[in-house]
Amino acid sequence: MGNCQPSDAAKEPRENELMSAPMQPRYKVAIIEFNVPGAANGGTDKGADGHRIDSVPIANGVIRAGGQCDIVKYYHNKHDAFTQQVQGYDALIVRINPGQLSQGTIKGTQERFDKLMNSLLAKGKIVWSSPDVQTKMGAK
Questions:
Q1: What is the Cα Rg of the chain in Å?
Q2: Which helix (H) or strand (E) holds 137?
Q3: Closest of 92, 86, 104, 94 to residue 43, by C-alpha
Q4: How far apart are CA 27 and CA 67, in angstroms?
Q5: What are phi and psi of 92, to 5 degrees?
Q6: Is pLDDT above 70 for 4?
Q7: Which of 107, 121, 133, 138 has CB atoms 3.0–4.6 Å from 129's, for a disulfide?
Q8: Could you tell me the pTM of the whole model?
Q9: What angle do helix axes 79-86 and 109-122 make, rounded to 10 degrees?
Q10: Residue 28: per-residue pLDDT
Q11: Hey, is 73 helix, strand or coil?
Q12: Where are the alpha helices (DSSP H) in 10-87?
């Protein structure tokens, strides 16, 4: 059997490490996450770093395709600041389970978030998946 030797591939960032964005990205994308207040790691769908285990690999895929991709947390008590922040993105990839925004948050959080996503869609932004799709499918 062959001997395992380090290669140039070993120098690539691990899939759980966010890559640097290209100097001149073709587009700007945000992956939207939410951590349930008081839940270990932010919820059962999160790793020890507080991110969904697939968020960093998805972001790295966007970066490899020539885009800038940031992981942005949604905080129910900072909705207005979040609203301003996401205006600068061309697209949003929402990685929040349906109903999760009703856990440990102020009343109406899910509805406020969905209204914001729908307003961004109306402005021509890409939102995947939209609140309407999530509701019909019962999943992201």
A1: 17
A2: helix 131-137
A3: 104
A4: 5
A5: -125, 135
A6: no
A7: 133
A8: 0.84
A9: 20
A10: 98
A11: strand
A12: 55-64, 79-86
Lowest mean pLDDT among 5-9, 62-66, 104-108: 5-9
Give me the mean pLDDT over the 2-6 stretch.
51
Cα 11 from Cα 139, distance rounded (Å): 36
Tell whether the model's pLDDT for residue 25 goes beyond 50: yes
- Kindly state the tokens that stand for 115: 């209204």
Residue 135, phi then psi, degrees to nearest 5: -65, -45
For residue 35, give Cα distances in angstroms to 43, 119, 123, 136: 6, 23, 27, 23
Q: Which two tokens stand for residue 34?
A: 């939410």
Tokens 């899910």 appear where?
Answer: 110
Whether 131 shows a pLDDT value over 80: the answer reads no
Tokens 């999760």 belong to which residue?
100
> Rounded to the nearest 5°, which phi and psi values hold at 46?
-115, 150
